[in-house]
Amino acid sequence: ARNFFDKAVKSKLRLNQFGGSAGGPIAKDKAFFFLSYEGLRQKTSAPIVESTLSAAARAKAVPAIQPLLAAFPVGQYASSDPNLDIINVNAPASVGENSGGMRLDYNLSSKLRLYLRYFRDQGESYQTQNSTGSQYFTSVVPQNAVISLNQILTPTVINETKFGFNGSKTRVYGIPGSSPNANISGMTINLSGSVALGGIAGQTGSAGLAIPSGLIRLSSSFNGRGAPYTNFSESFIDNLSVVRGSHNMKFGGELRALTIYNDQLGGTTFSFANVAAFLANQPSSIAFNGDLSAKSPFTGLSGEAHMRQNYYILYGQDEWKISPTLTMSYGLRWEYYQPMHETNNKNVYFDMAKGTIIPGYKGDWYSSSKKNFGPRLAFAWAPRQFNNKTVFHIGSGFYYGPGQTEDQIQPEANDRIGRTITSGSLLAYPFDTNQIFATYNIDDPNLGYQPRAYAPGYRLPERILQYTASVQQELPGNTMLTVAYVGNQGRNLFLRSTTNKIVSVGMNATTGAAIVNREFGNRFAEIDYKTSGGRNNYNSMQVTANRRFSSGLSMGMQYTWGHSIGNSGGSNEANTAGNPFDFNADHGNNNFDIRQSFNMTGLYELPFGRNRRYLSHTGAAANFLLGGWQLGGIANARAGVPIDVLITRPDVVYRDTRDGSIYANPVLVNGSPVTTPVINTLGGGNSRNVRRPDVVAGVDPYLHSGMGWVNPAAFSIPLPGTFGNSSRNSLVGPGLSQIDLTLGKKFPFAEQKFVEFKAEIYNILNHANLANPGNVRLQQIIPSGPGASGLQPGQAFTTATAGANFGARTSTVSNQIGLGTNRQIQLALRVNF
Fold first, then answer.
1. What is the pTM of this model?
2. Burial level of 14, CB count in 10 A (0-12/13-18/19+)?
3. Residue 778 bridge partners (DSSP)
């Protein structure tokens, strides 16, 4: 622990931020301009603590695996597991960014005003993924522009017409770690039983083990070398504002056309259930994916995908001042999100009802409702009897959204070669992908193709009902207190699960090995599917107090108690269902559930200098140096974020017919099998790997000493064919607290010209804010046969059987700037003239 904290507080940040702006008239009272530029150069390092192969483990590797050992870093000290050592590294990262913008305003006449605004940003970053040194490179070039014409039709009627463009050119690539003796370009080695790498909200890709990789996570279920894509939208917007007596009305509409050019560069992922399986060259699966732009064996098309979609929006609203003390706001908004489509029919649609694939499908991939009417209603009331010092607010409204784009492009992403191998002679390293590509036959009954699908009832959009009620009270000392209830109900939210499940298992009479049968046959592997119908709700109490700047002091305080719970967090927050037959089994805390948060801010003008309490008669030079200083601070604290404890379980296990014991392999006695294969996990497959353990009743799930946080003895292995009863996000991680200070002053050197100095100190106490444990995935290590080590279903885990670093807090939050950083000092100068 001491070694870890010593490293953690020595994380480094070097930040240079610079820029400038200028503006003024081009022609007096006619044309104006404004230009701005900002540059950023940032280099950081943050601690990463993971498990890696020990020397003892490396000595056990079979010859085929030995070339890969160099891809794993050498540990610095031993763990409780003899196969694993601990490595603690400071992982470098860098960001470079240049951004700039311009605006031109032109008065065509007293009733017509035109403006043009353009902004462009260009950024590049290198981020280290894990202790192996593998990185991902990101280049993003967002830019947007808008041209707007304001028309004053009458003194009470104003119309605004706008055309906007918003686009981004993004390139993301994986960079292998520096292992000169191990070439892992285009591949990933995962020893935790998972397939997808970490990086997508709501998913857990790492079990705290080093993952050598030349890939990055391209989607929520597979990895690849990179993802070049370009997306942009074009919007035509018109808004009409009308003031009539006590009514302030606004009407408008928008047509937004979206375009996406997308490619996904594939790779190969070797997944091993545990370290022993890796050393013996026994992968649980090999998942490989071709490039999306390569020639497809399904549609015969090549090149990047070209997708289009339109949004249609109309609205009307009115703010009606019923009386001097009562105002009502009401309105109606309608939105329609056209289903996404690929312009060249470069897609492969999977029909879940029939279990077949349809290349070049020309129908809608999913349904989208046209009945998305969102009424809004709110009241504000300031009763006279409270002397205009008390205001009541109440309001509610329906809101709609299409969700994240990834959830709408599955058929497009299917139009590529892909295969997941879970058995047979090919299930080993090395793996010749070129041979597989050359002989790829879409009619092969053992293809292992892994399309992603939509359930027949998948329907957009997601719907949220939001409502709030609050009271504001003016207090002495220029302070305003607000107490509010805020809540919402989410409906028709995004859900996901798996199909093509294992439905039966036979046995080879000679070897006792399992013969697996899937819903749609073995032509397909496990199929990830998406649907709608999820539900959640949020309820909170929010208290805010603000003191306006007066007598040299301003202050603010906010406290929130809230709870977000449901069977889905919605788009980008929905895990694969732990039970593929019942989405409600995942009813639990949402990923963003934070029960309590508190922050307080203050800004104080130090009482020194001319016209102040102290040194009020000082000279000009002394006042220049001592007067006008401002000291500010921010205190933040919040409860922990959720922890989802998962377990890796093999699809099939073997039950001993003599005593009911469970083993990982068939057992033969006198040449005949005495075990029967049984389905262990009804979902089958590991691509999403969201499986839950059973909870051991009466055992505290938290450890209360040392670096440990989650107690492995609180969990056990479920019985074969059952689903764990641990609920989604059932535990909570460490809280966070931080105090920041700022000190600043303006140094005038001429009328309306000054130099502004500011010093900012983040986390001035250098408090170590520990992140959630990186390893909260248990491994079902089943005995290979009678007398072998392992755990039987129902047996609780121990520190030894849970694996190195399970449930341990091994890293800080490690934000580079702001909330969650280690202590950092920034100095800034700004010249205003």
1. 0.87
2. exposed
3. 647
